[in-house]
Specification:
The complex is a heterodimer of chains A (344) and B (341). Chain A is of the alpha/beta class. Chain A has helices at 59-66, 94-101, 121-131, 137-150, 167-179, 197-214, 225-231, 249-254, 259-267, 307-311, and strands at 10-23, 28-43, 48-52, 74-79, 87-88, 104-107, 185-189, 217-222, 234-239, 242-248, 317-320, 323-325. Chain A has an eight-stranded mixed β-sheet, with helices on both faces. In chain A, helix 3 packs across helix 4 (137-150), helix 4 packs across helix 5 (167-179) and helix 5 (167-179) packs parallel to helix 6. The longest helix of chain A is centred in the middle third of the chain and has 18 residues, at 197-214. The two termini of chain A are 39 Å apart. Chain A is built from ten helices and twelve strands. Chain B is α/β, with parallel strands linked by helices and 341 residues long. Chain B has twelve helices and twelve strands. In chain B, helix 4 (124-135) packs parallel to helix 7 (172-184). The chains are: A alpha/beta (344), B alpha/beta (341).
């Protein structure tokens, strides 16, 4: 695959994150949950890459591995910026990681539980500055005020506690905390999923503006395929710890190559009563990542399953330029994607 | 009341007297549910959609109280009678015998999070059998067989074994199915579904919605679907009520509503969601500001501070009446009320 020294800001190679299952009094390891299993992904500077999949597919774990909230079991995470040599974040010591923690930041889903209720907004947004020794005292306060303004909050409110803010405002606080250190990459983990629709649109717009103003690169993790289509340049679809399809957003949405992507797109409820269509209903449930089925993990639910699917695991391959798929039958199937709309 | 009307809500008001002030969670809601139809209630958090549903079953949390209006339920006088009887649910004792005979029998409800609404101390079979024994005369054996039958009907594999499973032993989708089974076991005439798929993944959501619609067709019941997801509404409902700050702002058929929304709030809502298939050609337009806090309801029209069609001197002064348009839909907005000249 791609070399780490090309133009990518992030090059993830064969990343694995296995969580041990301990059982019994002795706490012996009885197996592993393969939350992220051999994932490779590249991100270019200034790009928004969407990561979609159902709960338990490993998308959050992948995001957390990148910011090294987890110690990956194996694999590489090359990070490269400003013409410097690529560093492998997966292999750095805690101490060596410090400078990079400022450059890769995260926004979380739940604006209620991701902010400490006993800290004021000034403390929450200012903490990264203090810890990294960037600013102190008056300078810190000024920088926090400027950041709050940037995310659409009034700096006068910085001595208030999170409970005084609505869900949308809290998410703005979370965004302020993420951007206060001038990061290069922001990993947004379901950043708009818990918000009401009218507020969600505000936050989406804010994130797009910030991306322009601050030259950010986003990894946008979400289960909401409509939102991802709206924000992402490229999309990777995950299923049971693996990427099963990856490509440009328009390609992937209009011409999916993996039956799972097709089913996922068809399951999304569309806000148009004239479009009530026959949908592909997936039978059964997502397999247990500690004990996945043989062959292709999707085969028990796939309507195109043949013998080879039950035996061999399909590798992720580039079928058309830039469009990757892990499916034995990708060439022969003609799957239907989302209808194309061009009005407006 | 018309013969095919199952439920008619008239000018319902539900208030929560709190220390900080009175929260008017539901403030004059009117609608009706026809037999066999699916009515959607849509709105953002705090708009009163769940409280409306809770008040139908008289299960509003303390200190909420129905302070006005009527909730008329039309039901047969007895099991096999064709004579109809109208009961005002708002006027009867929430803890009384009559209300308890209606809950779970005539009107059943399913909730968002099955893990918190099922008892984790009892098997799902026990909980379903309990519902049967409350409303039907059956032996223990018959009730158990019925429980197994309904579990199979909602698509739970190996129902004869799963009937003895505890909720924690089931996955999220299966728990939601078990809860649907429990709600449907007494053949209710109205099913109230409060965000039934919000906690589920899209593929599971599609399965559950399909199941609810299929059961509705088979059993001929009416469904009241409460959700914030306009996509789910568009795909399942016949009629839609859009709520904002405790009021119904628009009440229309599903096609009318999505193709030609009338109320500025409905229009803004539809403009604020990304549309699958439109990609970046569709510009999401946020609604400015936010839902006001419930202690400070704006004067006049509750939506006026965020409204793009705001008319100074009218919208911030006069509360708009519900106006019926020539095509039969209802809109609560001064643009249609004739009060602005």
């Amino acid at each position: 695959m791609t070399k780490p020294d090309d133009q990518n800001i992030l090059t993830i190679r064969s990343l694995k994150m296995y969580f041990p299952i301990n059982r019994g009094v002795m706490g012996r390891i009885r197996g592993y949950v393969r939350a992220v299993d051999d994932v490779s992904l590249t991100v270019k500077p200034g790009e928004t890459v969407g990561l979609v999949g159902e709960s338990g597919c490993g998308k959050t774990t992948l995001g957390r591995c990148i910011v090294r909230a987890y110690e990956p079991t194996a694999g590489d995470i090359f990070y490269r910026t400003g013409g410097k040599e690529a560093v492998n974040l997966a292999h750095l010591e805690k101490r060596e990681l410090r400078p990079y923690r400022r450059q890769l930041r995260m926004i979380f889903q739940d604006p209620y539980s991701s902010l400490n209720p006993r800290m004021t907004v000034l403390d929450i947004v200012g903490e990264p500055l203090r810890i990294n020794g960037v600013a102190d005292g008056k300078a810190l306060e000024e920088r926090v005020a400027a950041t709050l303004q940037r995310v659409g909050l009034r700096p006068e409110y910085m001595r208030r506690y999170p409970h005084a803010f609505s869900g949308g405002q809290r998410q703005r606080i979370g965004i302020a905390r993420a951007i206060v250190l001038d990061p290069r990459i922001v990993i947004a983990d379901e950043a708009v999923s818990a918000l009401d629709v009218s507020v969600r649109a505000q936050i989406l717009r804010l994130m797009q503006n910030l991306k322009q103003e601050l030259n950010l690169t986003y990894l946008f993790i979400s289960h909401d395929l409509s939102v991802v289509e709206y924000v992402a340049d490229r999309v990777a679809v995950m299923y049971v710890g693996k990427i099963v399809e990856m490509g440009n957003t328009d390609d992937l949405y209009h011409h999916p190559l993996n039956p799972y992507t097709e089913a996922l797109l068809s399951a999304v409820p569309k806000p148009d009563p004239l479009q009530r269509s026959e949908r592909i209903l997936l039978k059964g449930e997502i397999p247990d990542p500690a004990n996945p089925p043989s062959g292709c993990y999707f085969h028990p639910r796939c309507r195109f399953c043949v013998d080879v699917c039950k035996q061999e695991f399909p590798t992720l391959r580039e079928l058309t330029p830039g469009h990757w798929v892990a499916c034995h039958r990708a060439e022969e199937l003609s799957l239907s994607g989302v209808k194309v709309f061009t009005r407006r | 009341m018309q013969a095919n009307t199952l439920l008619e809500v008239q000018d319902l008001r539900v208030h929560f007297p709190l220390r900080e002030g009175v929260v008017r969670a539901v403030e004059g809601v009117d609608f009706e549910v026809k037999q066999g139809s699916t009515v959607g209630l849509v709105g953002e958090s705090g708009c009163g959609k769940s409280v409306t549903a809770f008040s139908i079953l008289q299960i509003i949390g303390k200190p909420g109280k129905i302070v006005g209006g009527k909730i008329l339920l039309q039901r047969p006088t007895s099991e096999h009678s064709s004579q109809m009887d109208v009961i005002d649910l708002a006027a009867i004792d929430p803890r009384g015998q009559l209300m308890r005979s209606i809950r779970g029998k005539d009107i059943a409800m399913i909730f968002q999070e099955p893990m918190t609404s099922l008892s984790m101390m009892h098997t799902i079979g026990f909980q379903i059998i309990e519902a049967i024994e409350l409303h039907q005369k059956m032996t223990k054996k018959q009730a158990r067989d019925r429980a197994i039958e309904i579990l199979g009907r909602v698509g739970i594999p190996k129902p004869a074994q799963r009937v003895d499973a505890y909720p924690f032993e089931l996955s999220g989708g299966m728990r939601q199915r078990a809860m649907i089974a429990m709600a449907l076991v007494c053949n209710p005439r109205l099913l109230i579904a409060d965000e039934p798929t919000t906690a589920l993944d899209v593929t599971m959501q599609a399965q559950i919605m399909e199941l609810i619609l299929e059961l509705q067709r088979d059993l001929g019941m009416s469904v009241m679907l409460i959700t914030h997801d306009l996509g789910v509404i568009a795909e399942t409902c016949d009629e839609v009520l859009v709520m904002y700050l405790g009021e119904v702002v628009e009440n229309a058929g599903v096609k009318q509503l999505f193709q030609d929304p009338q109320h500025p709030y409905t229009r803004a809502l539809l403009r604020s969601i990304p549309r699958l298939g439109h990609g970046k050609n569709w510009e999401v337009e946020p609604i400015e500001g936010m839902v006001p806090d419930p202690y400070n309801r704006p004067n006049g029209c509750p939506f006026h501070p965020r409204c793009v069609s705001f008319i100074s001197g009218v919208c911030d002064q006069v509360h708009p009446p519900m106006t019926t348009l020539p095509d039969g839909r209802k809109v609560r907005c001064h643009l249609y009320s004739g009060s602005m000249v």
